[in-house]
Specification:
The structure is a single chain. By secondary structure, the protein is of the alpha+beta class. The protein contains 11 helices and 21 strands. It has helices spanning about 40-50, 55-60, 110-120, 130-150, 180-195, 205-225, 245-255, 315, 320-325, 355-360, 395-405, and strands spanning about 90-95, 125-130, 155-165, 170-175, 230-235, 260-270, 335, 345-350, 365-375, 385-390, 410, 415-425, 430, 435-440, 440-450, 465-475, 490-495, 505-515, 520-525, 560, 565-570. Helix 3 crosses helix 4 (about 130-150) and helix 5 packs antiparallel against helix 6. The protein is globular and about 70 Å long.
Amino acid sequence: MGHGHHHHHGHAHDHDHGPSTAAELPAAFDTSVPDEALTPEQQSRRTLLRRAGLLGAGLTAASVLTPQSPAAAATAPAASAGRRKGGFLWLAGDHHIHTQYSNDGKYRVVDQVRQGAKHGMDWLVITDHGNATHARIGVEKVNPDIREARSAYEDTLVFQGLEWNIPAAEHGTVFVHPGKNEVSVLKQFETDYDGGVKQATDSTPANETLAIAGLNFLAEQVRRRKVKDALMLANHPARKGIDSPHEIRAWRDATGGGRRIAVGFEGAPGHQAAGIPAELGMGRARGLYDGSPGANSFPGYPLESYRTWGGFDWMTATVGGLWDSLLAEGKPWWITANSDSHQVYADTAVRGPNTDYNANGHHADPVYGGKLDLTEGDYWPGQYSRTHVGADRFSYAAVMDGIRAGRIWVDHGQLISGLDVRVSGGGRWTTLGGALHVKKGTNVTLTVDIALAGGANWAGFVPKLARVDVIRGEVTGPVADKDTFTAPTARVVKSYEVNKATGTVRLTYSLGRVDRPSYLRLRGTDGNRSAVGALGAAVDPAGPAIDVVGDADPWLDLWFYSNPVWVLPS
């Protein structure tokens, strides 16, 4: 499956003098740094870590949340790949953030980074919209602001990226490892392969081919060591119905230059505040998923795919749906969650006077507007949506490695504080994104340790986890029809009621003696809203309910999801 080993931590690229790829622990994690020596943002981060039980002894002792031994990798179950002895650092981040360098944005880079740091984000990707103005001057102009933010917030890794208009499809995050060529590579990519810049947005075979060429271009830049790494994640994939199953498979399978660039999609979109009813909010739909099929939409998608389900995209939320159909092929494809932050709900800032985006490549700096704006649908990075990545050190390369490896779980509203997933058997174990190779007939066990919410979230309450579901599907191999979007074997195989409000919970599920390849993934809920899944009660008796357009307060419907673990007997 090719997602176990990660050897590109080393010194093969020392000619690129970007930010350090092997930084020490950030100050908030480092208990030798006293509280009073921390900045306000670092103090906020430390408080979040304390609540989650992830400080001090939790990082080095044999804690369930910090694996002691290296995870079993797909190619070599005992390979360490230079990992920390104390296990993975679970670094929270957001890969989809807009600034004044987006035509529909408002905030300075430092505003988004400061807010992200305040809300516990360890890494952020600035992803201003690809367009002719951005390609012409915006890519260069945002870079000094990003570098200044890196210096001002040393405990937050700030990547430069862009929101790609994927030719023939929706948007996607593209970002690169920082370094001297980050601007030139992103600028050439946007100029040559952005669907908006190239007027290549229609769903045609030629435009689909251009999208693959763009991914191959990025892979080639990594191969030639122009940049150390590059990644693409598809954004809000079901929103317009224009990301067809065959396109998603083609992105996933593109490996020009030998490097997989497209590794996943947003399991949950941003714009989560947009569903707050009109008297207090925007009165639209969570994620702004309130559209309908258009001329370029894939005709096979049902109407309900244009809505969110418990705040999550239909492709992820449907057990036995499109995401499961990808996983059933035995190939990696991961989910994330993020803010898509443009204009923040209940904020007081407005664009500065005399703004001229087309002339300047950015809007004027924001100024105080004199009132709370309740008509916007976004949150600050980390305020509601979080993507947690298991990294072996605090560095740009380690975050990118963790994303590519699928060591990712996501949550809304700080429903839980920590998640440790292990699948073990035959003297080996692996974690999220990994593959456990065992002999046929080996007893295999899933062990899940959950740190429950450790304090109040931004909305002022301590969320309570009500139930955790284990979802299992068989690996049936590559599909004959690339537009397949169902996986008939996937189903909820076990549900656990959580009758505890604080501390940690351990759940175990026995797979028995395994004789066929399969995968497992997890989700959990506060139990406020549920419904029988789209494929029936035998598949999903109590999944997320479809969100009501105009009446979907996101704080009243919280979920977490994990990426899968494969079990491969032979």
